[in-house]
Design brief:
This protein has 359 residues and is mainly beta. The protein is built from two helices and 18 strands. It has a 16-stranded antiparallel beta barrel. The longest helix has 8 residues. It is a multi-pass membrane protein. Pfam families: Porin_4 (PF13609).
Length: 359
């Protein structure tokens, strides 16, 4: 049973790609169109009424042109409809007024990139896109509230290289361009802006036995920031994450752990720790159940006492595929947040039923 990293981590996207419609295929050029309509009905926050929301519906265009000898040029564009809850794990109460309203939001460019691919080497792309760190998270099986990847998994200006696979191994590198302006003023805002960042990722997949596969991934990233008063680096984030997953027949189980250290003016100010445990079981061919536990902890290093905030998130869900193009699901999430030195825990329950139609 061949289980690749991509198939395991982006199953929904793979289904979309498999259903892509080829709208042009001539003289070495192929253009494909795909996408999905995603809606969810539920309660998305403790201070909100039940609501019907868009869940990151999207339209995807991909093009490639064969240059010969295994080399091809490629391009991609993704239009995503924002508003309400979405697949990037943003909650409605952290969004702006337009996105947390009852509307389905306006379309915006989510990805726009171009590049080259060589069969025996890998793929090099430039533009607004996901980074290779996005693939480091292996065991987020949830549809809405899952995931706690502490690496930067996407940005507006990314140069990305993802290697071909050799004996189960592959790797990736990313460079993130930040704000290009060097104009500064003494009265400027001190809000941090990305100056530049870079990251590396490593992947390994192997079939250990019949119906038994092992997947491993690791990532490391450094991100530097300045502000409108200076071009010097005033803050730096250093992040790493590791993931391990076992797949046995219809069952998958994985553990992920990562840390991010924050520094301001070379002084360590904060440490974030992210643990994720995920499991999935294909009960019958069209239906699976999944569980997830997250433990997200922030330590404020400059505070001598009461310097920790710990969040635990518990997620349970199930889906049913009417066909490879139509998936419905139910999902429940409960979070508890404990601030050191405060007796009471903050608790929140969320639940939703969703429908996704791929085309």
């Amino acid at each position: 049973m061949k289980k690749t990293l991509v198939a395991l981590t982006v199953a929904a996207f793979a289904a979309t790609a498999a259903n892509a419609a080829v709208v042009y295929n001539q003289d070495g050029t192929k253009v494909e169109v795909s996408g999905s309509a995603r809606v969810a009905l539920g309660k998305f926050g403790k201070d909100q009424r039940a609501d019907l929301r868009n869940d990151g519906s999207r339209l995807i265009f991909k093009a490639e042109h064969e240059l010969g000898n295994g080399l091809k040029a490629l391009a991609g564009y993704e239009l995503r409809f924002k508003g309400g809850v979405d697949s990037d794990n943003d909650t409605p109460d952290t969004k702006d007024d337009d996105e947390s309203s009852n509307t389905f939001g306006s379309p915006e460019t989510n990805k726009l990139y171009a590049g080259l691919a060589y069969d025996a080497v890998g793929t090099l792309t430039f533009g607004k896109q996901a980074t290779t760190a996005d693939d480091v998270s292996l065991s987020d099986f949830a549809y809405i509230w899952g995931g706690n990847n502490n690496l930067v998994d996407a940005d507006n200006k990314v140069v990305k290289f993802k290697s071909a696979e050799w004996s189960g191994f592959s790797f990736g590198t990313d460079y993130l361009f930040g704000d290009s302006s060097k104009q500064r003023t003494a009265m400027g805002a001190t809000e941090l802006k990305l100056k530049y960042g870079y990251g590396v990722s490593l992947f390994y997949t192997r079939d250990l036995a019949e119906d038994l596969a092992l997947n491993l991934a690791a990532g490391y990233g450094v991100y530097r920031f300045d502000n409108e008063t200076t071009t010097n680096t005033v803050a730096k984030d250093t992040s790493w994450r590791t993931s391990a997953q076992i797949v046995y027949g219809p069952a998958s189980f994985g553990v992920e752990y990562g840390q991010t250290g924050h520094k301001e003016n070379d002084v360590k100010t904060q440490t974030d720790r992210s643990l994720l445990v995920g499991a999935s079981y294909q009960v019958i061919e069209p239906s699976k159940v999944y569980l997830q536990w997250q433990r997200n902890q922030t330590k404020f290093d400059q505070s001598p006492v009461d310097n920790k905030e710990t969040e635990n998130v518990y997620i349970v869900g199930a889906d049913y595929k009417f066909t490879k193009n139509v998936v419905t699901f139910v999902e429940y999430a409960r979070s508890t947040t404990k601030v050191e030195g405060v007796d009471n825990k903050e608790k929140e329950n969320k639940y939703a039923a969703g429908l996704r139609v791929y085309f």
